[in-house]
Amino acid sequence: MRAHHDQPATRRVLAQLELLVNQRLAGAVHGDYQGLFPGPGNEAGEGRLYVPGDDVRLIDWNLTARTTHTHVRDPIRDHELDVWLVVDLSASQSFGTRGGEKRELALFGAAAFGFAAAWLANRIGAVLVVDDGTEVWPLRSGKIHLQAALHRIAQLNTRDARPDPPAGRTDLRPALTQVATVAPRRGFIAVLSDFLVEPGWYNELHRLCQRHTVVAVELVDPLEMRLPAVGSLVVEDPETGERLTVDTLDRGLRERYEEAARQQREGIARVLGNAGAEHLRLRTDEDWIGQLVRFFQLRRHRQFGYRRSSWVA
């Protein structure tokens, strides 16, 4: 599915997205709001024995002292949860080869999380990362508000909305700091980005994970992982405008590129994991809705509590 951005076409795309999400995700999340958005909750529930992987912040020290065995108390989940979407729409999202651009994948992922949250009557807000800063959509309930936010994402995806010359390397820190400011209540945050951004965003993400349930959705295109042997190729950095001509028939170059890309992605996964975020990788050349279905099913079936999971396709 490709996103088109004149208003009637965009409405049709969003209607198709909603239908697709309803058809494919409904079985994974309907009837179990905790399975999709396990909000932290504010009230302690029943105690149980600690098992490896439990959040140490849930340890009940009084119960542990009385029983001489480590116990935790799972919080009672809030039925009404604030859901925030942090969507990176910077220049690097313009890249795409087979299945479309990463910008489209960002829209599709935001729609999946958004419609799933709307089913459960949660309030939804968004912080959009654009080339010249951030744009905030406040928390509101209802599908109309969600559709307006998704329409804005589609509008920002147009080439006319992209700066010329490029604005420079994206900094994710302001958006993460901003969502922490506008989301004082514990909730669920989905961060959709390729994370090919200025370094230094770990601390902001870690602080978010201390208070909220955070899912980091990494957007990837296959050409970012491996160069094809197609001869002389001119590549351009969409965020800086810098161009470089490379000889893709050079096997050593391709191998160095693949190794550097592997280390880069492993580094991103390591940072996300250390921060405490759940990690989902979506690729432009794969079935994105299928990846989301499997991810949501994993969340639904894992043991109740604060457990960090990873689903990297």
The number of distinct structural domains comes to 2
Which percent range fits the helix content? 25-40%
Runs with pLDDT <50, length 5+?
A: 31-35, 303-310
What fold name stands as the CATH topology of the largest domain? Rossmann fold
Structural class given helices, strands, pairing?
alpha/beta
Order of SSEs = HHEHEEHEEHHEHEEEHEHE
Shape: globular
Proportion in β-strands: 15-25%
The separation of the N and C termini measures: 20 Å
How big is the Rg? 20 Å
**Name given to the CATH architecture of the largest domain:** 3-Layer(aba) Sandwich
- Compute the average pLDDT: 81
Order of strands in the sheet with most strands: 5-4-3-6-7-10-11
Could you tell me the number of beta strands?
Answer: 11
CATH class of the largest domain: Alpha Beta
Tally of alpha and pi helices = 9
Provide an overview of this structure.
- This is DUF58 domain-containing protein.
- It holds the Pfam family DUF58.
- It comes from Saccharopolyspora ipomoeae.
- With 313 residues, this protein is an alpha/beta fold.
- The protein folds into 2 domains: 208 residues, Rossmann fold (3-Layer(aba) Sandwich), CATH 3.40.50; 35 residues, no CATH class.
- The protein is built from 9 helices and 11 strands.
- The chain has a 7-stranded mixed beta sheet with strand order 5-4-3-6-7-10-11, sandwiched between helices. It has a two-stranded antiparallel ribbon with strand order 1-2. A two-stranded antiparallel ribbon has the order 8-9.
- Helix 9 links the parallel strand 10 and strand 11.
- Helix 1 packs across helix 4, helix 1 crosses helix 5 and helix 6 runs parallel beside helix 7.
